[in-house]
Amino acid sequence: MTDKLIPSDPSRVMVIRDVIPNVITTLSTPFLRFGKIKIGGRGTLVRLQSGSLAVFSPTALTPEVKEKVSSLGGRVKYIVAPDLEHHIFLGPWAQFYPGAKVIGMEGLREKRAKQENEDIPFAVTFTSKDKDSVKIDTEFDAEFDYEYVPAHANKELVFNHKPSKTLIEADLIFNMPATEQMSRTSESATTGILTKIWTYLTNTNGTALAQKRLIWYGISAGDRTGYAKSMAKINGWDFDRIIPCHGDVIETGGKGIFQKVMQWHLKLAEKH
């Protein structure tokens, strides 16, 4: 099924872009959910002040990506799977950069084993039981806020790169359509009835009512109170940019968009 989801020629269609030169680089690619819906995919490279690199939601490790990593110093120290869905390329990255710490959440190792993915060691695993006490290390923690959201259907890990005020997330907020991610293909990011429906549900325009309802009645329905508590914590962070895995990067005004999309959960958190 993977060949129906991701491009067979990632080098040709990937957009490698410096969001902040020598600090943040995005790796944007086409991605078809269920083989039909154009939601796009995105990995993010962050160069820490120490020179170490962190990669979030790793995408295909193409020659061009390896070259970009080398231009940033080549010291990949952290490889992060931000939820149970964004792990397809963990194996190639962990094998090519064997000194890196792989970071994930409960259930991911078991899911990968069931899918017969590469068996890779996880240096840090977040669980519901100890979500507030797990730390990555001093170097990473100096530059990032992070919150594990087990109440999310996909069990999200959300990060804030404090020096650049950049929220990095997987499926917490979508910003459809996937314009940049489809830009090097011959297809429009908005064609197809299923893509149109998904874009309607997951854009951030206007009141973002459809996405608010999707999260409230679907994604967080299993534990709205727990979800709301996590959203309140994230709302306390200082960020302006949002880099989602699906849809375009929100270059500025991200905090307001977060508050708009999560409005109902933030109000719920105030009551508890």
TrEMBL record:
Entry's transmembrane regions: none
One Pfam match: DUF4336
Matching SUPFAM superfamilies: Metallo-hydrolase/oxidoreductase (SSF56281)
InterPro entries: DUF4336, RibonucZ/Hydroxyglut_hydro
Superkingdom classification of source: Eukaryota
PANTHER family from the UniProt entry: METALLO-BETA-LACTAMASE DOMAIN-CONTAINING PROTEIN (PTHR33835:SF1), YALI0C07656P (PTHR33835)
Protein name per its UniProtKB record: DUF4336 domain-containing protein
Organism of origin: Pseudovirgaria hyperparasitica
Lineage, highest ranks first: Eukaryota, Fungi, Dikarya, Ascomycota, Pezizomycotina
